[in-house]
């Protein structure tokens, strides 16, 4: 049962990813990205990581895709259909398939046959996050703050434009 | 339940798709989207390994989930900055084609 669920979600994830890298229409690419990210949230659910699935839907499905759509609409120009792939795409394909071969060989060479899953409840996760990982947590929040203030400053119009 | 190898292969495939997108696409927005795909592939790998190894009782601290949360945080910061830079680039150069942004290219 869960194997069929995994197959379905893996298919949706990879189909969304292939849609992102193959479609000519940028808005369609953003929607394929949404499909792929929500399927990844489903993958987290069958791994019993409910909190991560929730965060995935909220941040990626809610925030990231909307921000990407905003960026597409703010930069919309007639050139998007013209911009497709660059000339080195066969090289990129070779590099990607080569890396896939290496990774798959490495994973298949030493398969870990565990079928029993264990995932944290909220209490264990937050306990670990705020004790063992407290300093990285604070640094991450600082990074997020600085990055978003920096984004506002970069995107703001300068004095001599408009 | 699906064994860990399936999740690892899925993660590798998604990562490779994102890599192809980063290398082959010319629109800057599409490059950023492909980077998001790669980060998600890494997260699948982290969470699958964490859940399976916890299930075996090998580790009991759920570090993989925590690191995945950090990856999501950094990804959010990264996409905010990247899209701000793309907006700036579009305003100054009227293009989002990364092949034409070659001022600093040797």
Taken from the alpha-carbon principal axes, the silhouette of chain B is elongated
Uncertain runs of chain B: none
**Strand residues, percent of chain A:** under 5%
Helix content of chain B: over 70%
In percent, how helical is the residue content of chain A?
over 70%
Oligomer: heterodimer
Under CATH, the topology of the largest domain in chain A is which?
A: Four Helix Bundle (Hemerythrin (Met), subunit A)
- Report the principal-axis shape of chain A: globular
Which CATH-level-2 architecture of the largest domain in chain A? Up-down Bundle
Give me the Rg of chain B, rounded: 18 Å
Question: Would you tell me the structural class of the helices and strands of chain A?
Answer: mainly alpha
Q: How can the largest sheet of chain B be summarized?
A: none
What's the CATH class label of the largest domain in chain A? Mainly Alpha
Structural class of the secondary structure composition of chain B?
Answer: mainly alpha
Helix-strand layout with pairing:
The complex is a heterodimer of chains A (162) and B (106).
Chain A: H1 2-22, H2 26-46, H3 50-74, H4 89-109, H5 122-131, H6 134-155
Helix pairs in contact in A: 1-2, 2-3
Chain B: H1 4-24, H2 28-55, H3 63-93
Description of the molecule:
Helices cover about 75% and strands about 0% of the residues of chain A. With about 160 residues, chain A is mostly helical. Chain A folds into two domains: about 1-80, NADH-ubiquinone/plastoquinone oxidoreductase chain 6, subunit NuoJ (Four Helix Bundle (Hemerythrin (Met), subunit A)); about 120-155. In chain A, helix 1 (about 1-20) packs antiparallel against helix 2 (about 25-45). Chain B is mainly α and about 110 residues long. Chain B is about 75% helix and about 0% strand. Chain B has three helices and no strands. The longest helix of chain B has about 30 residues, at about 65-95. The radius of gyration of chain B is 18 Å and the shape is elongated. The mean pLDDT of chain B is about 85. Chains A and B meet through helix 1, helix 2, helix 3, helix 4 and helix 5 of A and helix 1, helix 2 and helix 3 of B.
């Amino acid at each position: 049962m869960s194997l069929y669920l995994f197959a379905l979600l893996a298919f949706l994830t990879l189909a969304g990813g292939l849609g992102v890298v193959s479609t000519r229409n940028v808005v369609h690419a953003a929607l394929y990205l949404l499909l792929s990210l929500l399927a990844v949230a489903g993958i987290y659910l069958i791994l019993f990581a409910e909190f991560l699935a929730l965060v995935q839907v909220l941040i990626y499905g809610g925030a990231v895709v909307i921000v990407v759509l905003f960026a597409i609409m703010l930069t919309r120009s007639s050139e998007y259909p013209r911009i497709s792939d660059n000339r080195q795409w066969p090289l990129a394909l070779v590099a990607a398939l080569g890396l896939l071969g290496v990774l798959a060989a490495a994973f298949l060479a030493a398969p870990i046959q565990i079928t029993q899953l264990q995932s944290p409840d909220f209490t264990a996760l937050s306990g670990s996050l705020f004790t063992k990982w407290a300093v990285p947590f604070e640094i991450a929040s600082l990074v997020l703050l600085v990055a978003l203030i920096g984004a506002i400053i970069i995107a703001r119009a300068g004095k001599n434009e408009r | 339940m699906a064994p860990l190898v399936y999740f690892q292969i899925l993660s590798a495939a998604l990562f490779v798709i994102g890599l192809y997108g980063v290398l082959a696409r010319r629109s800057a927005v599409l490059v950023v989207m492909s980077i998001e795909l790669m980060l998600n592939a890494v997260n699948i790998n982290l969470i699958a390994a964490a859940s399976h190894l916890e299930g075996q009782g090998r580790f009991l601290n759920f570090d993989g989930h925590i690191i995945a949360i950090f990856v999501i945080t950094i990804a959010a910061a990264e996409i905010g900055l990247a899209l701000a830079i793309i907006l700036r680039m579009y305003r100054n150069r009227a293009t989002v084609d990364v092949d034409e942004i070659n001022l600093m290219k040797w």
